[in-house]
Amino acid sequence: MNAQQSIIRANNVNDTISIGRLALYDLKQSVKGVGHSFTRPLHWKKKDFTTLGTVIIGAYALSTIDDESSAFFVRNEQHVPNLFQEVGTRFGSPQVYFIANASLYGFGLFTRNEKLRKTSVLIISSSFTSGIIQSLSKTAFGRARPGNGYNNNEFRFWSNKAKFHSFPSGHTVLSVTMAHAIAKQFDNTWSKIGVYSLGAIAPISRLFSGAHWLTDVGIGAVLSIVIVDSIDKFLFKTKAYNYTKKEKQISWNFTFSGKGIGFIGTF
Q1: Buried (b) or exposed (e) across 125-141, using 16+ Cβ within 10 A?
Q2: For residue 211, what is the DSSP state?
Q3: Per-residue pLDDT reduced to its tens digit, 23-80
Q4: HSE (CB half, 13 Å, CA atoms) of 72?
């Protein structure tokens, strides 16, 4: 722990540090978190590349049912409550996402709640990182969206057209980033399930509306989880905030059997 962090910690206890200095400290931790996440691949080891390979294989396997699953979701959209679709569309939008996190951070800052501040820093740094990656990926891959007369393997690399910006799902990236960052602050399994359930509304609604393929949502979720876990681990190791213990990470395992292929997350 460096001298500045020691001062922050001591002043937090006495509630004498200014709001401005707390905000500046949090901003610095956010920038450090973003820097860490972008440079982390330079330090990957064999198991990290193995995990990447597993994700790629899993995504390819999942893509084999993209056309069928998309048709299934779109066909059944009429049975989905309008409220569910509306909530999913709004919750995954950048505007609502920004307002929600700004409110969370503002409350944590002015009440000097370190746990809320840390959670917001984790959300901000993670969403900034995942947002840049997903924005670049949408243009770079140029994957066609469902419902435009194309199947799931149609690509127009570096396209600036919205109908070729399907991969990955931006709504999924934002909603899962926030849900995972918040869920990590709870020890109770049922609380985690509740948070993840809310975070799943946006991704599922995008499938029913025919805006994305199943792999767009799946890879968007994996991307968000990996980035949040990486930055959370970084904040813990650098003792940026007053951790009482290390939060458990989700353990992802690739499964293959005669009945199917998929990922299992354990927390």
Answers
A1: bbbbbbbebbeebbeeb
A2: S
A3: 999 999 999 999 999 999 999 999 999 999 999 999 999 999 999 999 999 999 999 9
A4: 8
